[in-house]
Amino acid sequence: MRGEATVLHADLDAFYASVEQRDAPALRGRPVIVGGGVVLAASYEAKARGVRTAMGGRQARELCPDAVVVPPRMEAYSEASRAVFAIFRDTTPLVEGLSIDEAFLEVGGLRRLAGTPEQVAVRLRERVLAEAGLAISVGVARTKFLAKVASAVSKPNGLLVVEPEREQEFLLPLPVERLWGVGAVTAEKLHRLGIRTVGQLAELEEATAERILGRATGAHLHALARLRDPRPVDSTRRRSSIGSQRALGNRARSPDELDVILTQIIDRLARRLRDGDRLCRTVVLRLRFGDYEKATRSRTVRIPTDSTAVLLASARDLLTAAHPEIAARGITLLGISFSHLTRSDTLQPELPIDWSDGARLDSVLDAVRTRFGAASVSRATHLDRDPGLSAPLLPEHE
């Protein structure tokens, strides 16, 4: 087998709940649920009782009546994430962040200075615990995909090294759900055909996998099952999309409620665009229905923009078109992504400049929120709403 196991995937354990337990010693060892109306995160003590992320709060409390329910503190989680990523970057310059609580690290060039990849991983875990007060699981492998699987298998608070000569022994017996990109719908398709392990998928011809799962998905998953993943750790990659999503639980949501959630997401993402001097070309609506099947809808604007009004109008059109399906199937998650991003200084402005699109208002609102806080200005439609609708938005995990 070519190559060496030099890629680390580091993933903080039950991140939001772990931060709560770190900051409140009385919560340690107890089942903790972050979020009331919908579970945003659960400690391992709560997970052992069946509590899962995105579960409705009532169901979670029925499964675990002695759980301590705490409100989310997104600023505390962001601060903890920054501290951990500083440790990552102090370990190696080759860090590729995936989300607020996980990253890939390439450590192959550190052998003379810091020892073997396993030794680097051991010290990384020790530093994160000592300096950030958090447990972290690390997988070490030859490829990013295998490293990610290894960290998941090692949880909680574990370290697993997959040496090249035992990759097949490690991967092939695992359930197909361990493959990066296999969700409930894809898993069900494979299960109906008697394909339950990675090894069974690897035995198929690539054309057969493509016929079952679609050309792109089939080719991707078949390649992973056969241990093909040539992607390097890319520390220079600039995100081509940004997004946030809201888990909604299982109760019915009215169009007005969904619109409130949509505007909250758009307001926040549009401000992030402007803060980063980026423009968006495509708005993507992400839905998860009551049966947990996922769907996406997208719309591309004529000229890249950072205008809240323009982006909200596109997102509302997409959501309105999806209302009949939502009414029939229910909805458990609503998300928005802005993709095909470009730098704002690369766009030639059109003349005459028209301020009627709200650009001046966007600038004023951004300035107020920067000085007085994100909650200092709110839309009238957000007032006197169910507090559950005001819960923090979750960053997407890519």
From TrEMBL:
Keywords: Cytoplasm, DNA damage, DNA repair, DNA replication, DNA-binding, DNA-directed DNA polymerase, Magnesium, Metal-binding, Mutator protein, Nucleotidyltransferase, Transferase. Transmembrane segments: none annotated. The active site is at 102. GO terms for cellular component: cytosol. Pfam families: IMS, IMS_C, IMS_HHH. Residues 230-250 are annotated as: Disordered. InterPro entries: DNA/RNA_pol_sf, DNA_pol_Y-fam_lit_finger_sf, DNA_pol_Y-fam_little_finger, DNA_polymerase-Y, DNApol_IV, PolY_HhH_motif, Rev_trsase/Diguanyl_cyclase, UmuC. Residues 7-183 form the UmuC domain. GO terms for molecular function: damaged DNA binding; DNA-directed DNA polymerase activity; magnesium ion binding. CDD domains: PolY_Pol_IV_kappa (cd03586). Binds 2 magnesium ions per subunit. The keyword Metal-binding applies. It comes from the Bacteria. It is an enzyme of class 2 (transferase). Its EC number is 2.7.7.7. It is found in: Cytoplasm. The record marks 16 as: Substrate discrimination. GO terms for biological process: DNA repair; DNA-templated DNA replication; error-prone translesion synthesis; SOS response. Its cofactor is Mg(2+). Coiled coil: none annotated. Poorly processive, error-prone DNA polymerase involved in untargeted mutagenesis. Copies undamaged DNA at stalled replication forks, which arise in vivo from mismatched or misaligned primer ends. These misaligned primers can be extended by PolIV. Exhibits no 3'-5' exonuclease (proofreading) activity. May be involved in translesional synthesis, in conjunction with the beta clamp from PolIII. HAMAP family: DNApol_IV (MF_01113). Monomer. Belongs to the DNA polymerase type-Y family. NCBIfam families: PRK02406.1, PRK03858.1. This is DNA polymerase IV. The lineage of its organism: Bacteria, Bacillati, Actinomycetota, Actinomycetes, Micrococcales. The gene is dinB.
